[in-house]
User: Which sequence fits this backbone?
């Protein structure tokens, strides 16, 4: 969310020569002038100063799930909605949310050390020493009291354990220490547990987020030696939401499974630590010198281990139910009250959360205020608007997931789309979502002006992508593109249950890339940090409000809902081409590596005295039959084109009939049985990866079967996805 991107000087020169032409048409509208007037009136009421004031107010206290501050934040958000003409209520769910009772990390033997496990307060950060702040911990760690030698596992990914195996190092019965980065944090203990580790530590190396990246806080934005990233390690790729109520809402009387039996919770103790606390542990390591690409920026030689000394990790949690407060605000549609446009951002934070999530909720509130202003001018939305402020996103998307599970049937009947945001900062537009909305997003991106560059956010994003492209060919392709490069949805925010569980078309919108820093999930995610390093004049809060506000208003007012499935067909075609190439690449890799093994051409260790284990021959890749998927793709192309032709010549009555059904089309892409080993995820095209967490896997059932070289499952999933695409095409044909 906070990856740093450099906006090169030549890019500024380039985009300064680009002009933004007036928008002559908007997809789905007959009367463009009327809609542009609504949007101009909306924009005129947005106020950057008020965005900053709301960020300061709502991040003034810690507000994790069930806290006094959480209740305060929810009530303040509800007040803004009510004061601006929204019908507002708070829907409460009873959510499991464990907090720490005991946290001990120490080393004894050659090195004797006890970890600090506390972030210091600074005079430069007014909220950094408040008494109600959660301590540093990983939510959903198991209780545990373990003592063992330590092993360094790099980023803790499956391929890192393959490297360990080459060194003959087994983590069974050991505690592992992994670096934050390269994947979602919960993957690291998950893979460690699968390999027999009895505990896991996670730290941020200064090479990734510390003094190597930039000046440390409070001088600069990056992690000091005691900053810690809190966060959930729930195995959300199995299912998100309250772990004790899978597939049902966590109401007061809901039946629950014991948390020890929850399928998406790990069984080993896990603790995040600072690089200051990690330093003595890593310095104690013996064993082989780590491969060069494993080394971080600490002033030591990185060894894999095991450690010379023993590590003692003791953790205990309270495992309590706490109230989750979802704020739900509604304006009923004047013409189509049973067609819902839903907008959401979470309000809970690990600590004060100025960036994550308050910068996003402040933009959403600004939209709600501006829409309230339109109401006062006599405007009414055609379709019902529902604005949501979710609780308990941070522990595992709980507030939104429980609400979706509670209202699933009604949402599948009425929800036109869900529009999400989260943290927001200075930089470039980023949007992921349903690819039937690609052209819709393109239109919006060309109509919003970047506050720094003075060109459309479409052009600025394009210029930045071209700057970072590695070849002249890719630069040229980027500049020739006329559509916004809509990304696919993985997980990590509140859209997940809407699109991946019940098939509601969704978008996730935010700005960033010039707002890097190390405050994420620490006590330093504060107003003071945000106002200095993220969006000093709060202009990108207004820009986000303009972007997502246009999405809401255009979906609300459209004469023809702006779904174009020819764009979806093009996207799926790219995914399938990629899958075919992946199989071919695996086949070639197996042949090349087997030749190397047969000729004793092994990888050389970082330490020449270390003898690597002899690798085994790779299994050959069989023929994979993609014909059913390719045939389904051809059918979809015809169906999507036919629908566009029908919309072009349809009268008002026919268009109304199409509108009433077209938004439900995406539900046809759901797999009845869900994905293998995680049936909660039902979308055939988008899911978080089993070993990537937040990162998306497109056509996940097929892609992951290929990656695991499970060839029977690959063929089975090809058939399942082909059936889903054929069902989708049939739905379009019936409109």
Assistant:
């Amino acid at each position: 969310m906070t990856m740093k991107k450099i906006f090169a000087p030549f890019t500024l020169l380039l985009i300064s020569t680009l002009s933004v032409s007036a928008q002559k048409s908007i997809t789905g509208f007959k009367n463009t002038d009327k809609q542009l007037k609504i949007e101009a009136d909306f924009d005129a009421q947005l106020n950057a100063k008020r965005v900053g004031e709301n960020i300061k107010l709502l991040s003034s206290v810690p507000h994790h799930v069930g806290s006094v501050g959480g209740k305060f934040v929810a009530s303040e958000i509800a007040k803004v909605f009510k004061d601006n003409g929204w019908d507002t209520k708070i829907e409460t769910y009873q959510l499991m949310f464990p907090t720490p009772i005991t946290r001990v990390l120490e080393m004894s033997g050659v090195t004797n050390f006890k970890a600090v496990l506390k972030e210091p307060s600074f005079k430069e950060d007014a909220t950094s020493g408040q008494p109600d702040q959660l301590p540093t911990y990983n939510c959903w760690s198991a209780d545990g009291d373990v003592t063992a030698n330590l092993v360094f596992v790099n980023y803790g990914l499956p391929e890192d354990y393959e490297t360990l195996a080459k060194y003959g190092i087994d983590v069974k019965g050991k505690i592992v220490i992994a670096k934050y980065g390269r994947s979602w944090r919960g993957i690291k203990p998950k893979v460690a547990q699968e390999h027999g580790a009895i505990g896991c530590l996670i730290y941020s190396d200064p090479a990734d987020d510390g003094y190597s990246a930039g000046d440390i806080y409070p001088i600069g934005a990056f992690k000091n030696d005691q900053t810690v990233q809190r966060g959930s390690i729930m195995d959300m790729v199995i299912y998100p939401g309250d772990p004790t109520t899978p597939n049902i809402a966590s109401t007061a009387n809901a039946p629950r499974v014991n948390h020890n039996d929850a399928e998406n919770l790990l069984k080993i103790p896990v603790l995040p630590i600072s690089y200051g606390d990690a330093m003595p542990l890593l310095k104690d390591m013996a064993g082989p010198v780590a491969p060069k690409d494993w080394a971080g920026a600490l002033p030591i030689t990185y060894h894999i281990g095991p450690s010379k000394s023993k590590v003692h990790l003791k953790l205990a949690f309270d495992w309590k139910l706490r109230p989750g407060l979802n704020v739900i605000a509604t304006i009923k549609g004047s013409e189509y009250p049973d067609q819902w446009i839903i907008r959401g951002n979470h309000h809970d934070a690990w600590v004060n959360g100025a960036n994550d999530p308050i910068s996003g909720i402040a933009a959403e509130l600004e939209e709600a205020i501006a829409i309230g202003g339109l109401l006062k001018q006599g405007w009414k939305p055609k379709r019902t608007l529902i604005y949501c402020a979710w609780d308990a996103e941070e522990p595992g998307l709980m507030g939104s997931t429980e609400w979706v599970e509670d209202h699933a049937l009604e949402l599948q009947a009425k929800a036109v789309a869900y529009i999400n945001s989260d943290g927001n900062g200075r930089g470039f537009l980023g949007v992921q979502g349903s690819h039937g909305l690609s052209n819709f997003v393109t239109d919006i991106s060309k109509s919003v002006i970047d506050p720094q560059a003075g060109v459309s956010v479409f052009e600025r994003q394009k210029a930045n992508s071209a700057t970072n492209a590695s070849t002249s060919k890719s630069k040229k392709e980027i500049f020739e593109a006329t559509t916004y490069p809509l990304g696919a949805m993985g997980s990590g925010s509140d859209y997940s249950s809407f699109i991946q569980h019940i098939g509601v078309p969704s978008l996730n919108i935010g700005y960033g890339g010039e707002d890097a820093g190390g405050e994420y999930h620490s006590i330093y995610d504060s107003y003071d940090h945000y106002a200095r390093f993220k969006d000093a004049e709060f202009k990108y809060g207004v820009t986000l409000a303009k972007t997502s506000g246009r999405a809401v208003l255009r979906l609300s007012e459209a004469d023809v809902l702006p779904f174009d499935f020819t764009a979806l067909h093009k996207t799926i075609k790219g995914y399938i081409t990629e899958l075919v190439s992946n199989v071919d690449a695996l086949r070639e890799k197996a042949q090349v590596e087997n030749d190397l093994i047969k000729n004793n051409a092994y990888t050389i260790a970082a330490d020449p005295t270390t003898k690597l284990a002899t690798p085994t021959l790779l299994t050959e890749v069989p023929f994979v039959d993609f014909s059913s998927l390719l045939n389904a793709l051809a059918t979809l192309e015809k169906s999507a084109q036919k629908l566009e032709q029908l919309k072009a010549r349809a009268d008002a009555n026919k268009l109304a009939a199409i509108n009433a059904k077209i938004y439900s089309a995406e539900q046809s892409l759901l797999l009845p049985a869900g994905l293998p080993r995680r049936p909660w995820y039902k979308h055939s095209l988008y899911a978080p990866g089993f070993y990537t967490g937040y990162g998306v896997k497109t056509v996940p059932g097929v892609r992951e079967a290929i990656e695991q070289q499970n060839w029977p499952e690959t063929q089975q999933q090809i058939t399942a996805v082909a059936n889903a695409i054929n069902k989708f095409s049939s739905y379009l044909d019936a409109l």
